[in-house]
Specification:
Elements lengths: L1 E5 L3 H16 L8 E6 L3 E3 L13 E3 L1 H6 L3 E4 L1 E6 L4 E5 L5 E5 L2 E4 L3 E3 L7 H4 E2 L4 H13 L11 E5 L3 H18 L6 E6 L13 H11 L2 E4 L3 E5 L2 E4 L4 E3 L2 E4 L3 E3 L16 E2 L12 E3 L4 E2 L13 H20 L12 E5 L5 E5 L4 E5 H15 L7 H6 L10
Parallel strand pairs: 1-2, 1-9, 2-5, 9-21, 11-18, 12-13, 12-18, 13-14, 20-22
Antiparallel strand pairs: 3-4, 6-7, 7-8, 10-19, 15-16, 16-17, 23-24, 24-25
Helix pairs in contact: 1-7
Keywords: FAD, Flavoprotein, NAD, Oxidoreductase
InterPro entries: FAD/NAD-bd_sf (IPR036188), FAD/NAD-binding_dom (IPR023753), NDH-2 (IPR045024)
Family: Belongs to the NADH dehydrogenase family.
Length: 401
């Protein structure tokens, strides 16, 4: 029997850990249940931190962890999925293609930044969506110091006032001072289509976020969208033109394109609709998890968000349940009633909320310490020690917060 997992992000990593854990509990040999993970690199990109400086350091190796739990790593990119034949075609780094069969498949392919067809965006926009994107932005920012201080060189526009946009924008004043000098006069401007900043976070934390932006000198353009970019800067839907050499696009994400190959229902974000076991109901043998799945967290109408907080726990349930079906043992319905947010606000600290109503519990430096612990400890892979790694993946206990 073979269980294939596509993706080495938070959901894929925990799917591998959890399926191997159940196999171990059931006393089944890796020869009898092969678990394999497919990804271009055996590396976890710590995507929630890519708004920080030195993004090239924000990865964690997975190969030793996978070896410790007897999960095979297959280097390559899954290109096509044939759900009727239960086959996955993989493009290898050598330019060849190979095909693997599966008995159960876990799709943990994550998400991608949504880049609309805005004139100039592809040529002139930056992002912190992927490791390569974040490295390119960091290199660009450092290169600005060698350019003349004209034509908006010292101005950065962040398009999108949601979670990612706010974290990127509030980190930028310090990043720019480190590049241009502590006495430099830089501008950071957030452009948000909605009438309020952080539209998805609700009203409870918003005054704290607005106050942090004011303290940092981050400007806001609310009720405005980006309509075009060129070498001179960015033009907004209000008609305003802002001179800048740096536009960071942070306006929404969608499920990775591979999910579109599964002949099942998808939501507006491209996510596969799954049942409480994270199974794709109409496609035999396929589970979806993390940002690839639209999953109910509880019985109150709350659904998992596209975040590592939900991806880790969803991955653990998906991996466990895919293995459980093959081993003939009961599955465990996914649930995640606890929900918190911890929004980094750069030098202004952070804000920590609990519950879907976003009740504020921690602010400022205290919240910042929690955010730093989350970012540097809690979301990283377990140590490559078999017993500890397997123990970390109990679906009922896995949480990134």
């Amino acid at each position: 029997m073979r269980l294939l997992i596509i993706g080495a992000g938070f959901a894929g990593m925990y799917a591998a850990l959890s399926s191997a854990r159940l196999r171990d509990i059931q006393g089944v040999s890796p020869d009898d249940l092969e678990i394999a993970l497919i990804a271009p690199e055996p590396t976890l990109v710590v995507r929630p931190r890519l708004y920080e400086p030195k993004p090239e350091t924000l990865t964690a190796p997975l190969l030793d962890v996978l070896r410790a739990i007897d999960v095979d790593y297959i280097q390559g990119s899954a290109e096509t999925i044939d759900t009727k034949a239960r086959m996955v075609q993989i493009a290898t780094p050598r330019g060849t293609r190979t095909t693997l069969s599966y008995d159960r498949l876990v799709i943990a392919t994550g998400s991608r930044l949504f880049r609309p067809n805005i004139p100039g965006l592809a040529e002139h926009g930056f992002s912190v969506d992927s490791l390569d994107d974040a490295i390119a932005l960091d290199k660009h920012l450092h290169g600005l110091a060698d350019r003349p201080a004209v034509n908006g060189r010292d101005t950065v526009v962040v398009a999108g006032g949601g979670f990612t946009g706010i974290e990127a924008a509030t980190e930028l004043p310090a990043r720019l001072r480190n590049i241009f000098g502590k006495d430099s006069r830089t501008r950071v401007i957030i452009v948000e289509r909605n009438s309020a900043i952080a539209p998805d976070m609700g009203e409870n934390p918003r005054p704290l976020i607005e106050d942090a932006l004011r303290k940092l000198g981050v400007e806001m353009r609310l009720g405005a969208g980006v309509v075009s970019l060129d070498k001179s800067g960015v033009t907004l839907s209000t008609g305003e033109h802002i001179e800048t050499e740096t536009v960071v696009w942070a306006a929404g994400i969608r499920a990775a394109p591979l999910t579109a190959q599964i002949p099942a229902e998808h939501d507006n974000f491209g996510r596969l609709l799954v049942d409480r076991d994270l199974r794709v109901p109409v496609v035999a043998g396929v589970f979806a998890t993390g940002d690839a799945a639209r999953a109910a967290c509880d019985d109150e109408g709350n659904y998992a968000l596209m975040s590592c907080q939900h991806a880790t726990r969803m991955g653990a349930f998906a991996g466990n349940n895919a293995a459980a079906e093959l081993l003939g043992v009961p599955t465990r319905p996914y649930h995640q009633k606890a929900y918190v947010t911890c929004l980094d606000l750069g030098e202004a600290g952070a804000v920590f909320t609990r519950g879907w109503e976003r009740k504020v519990e921690l602010v400022g430096d205290v919240a910042k310490k929690t955010k730093q612990e989350i970012n540097t400890v809690w979301i990283y892979p377990p140590k490559a020690e078999r017993a500890a790694a397997l123990a970390s993946a109990d679906p009922e206990r896995v949480t990134s917060l």
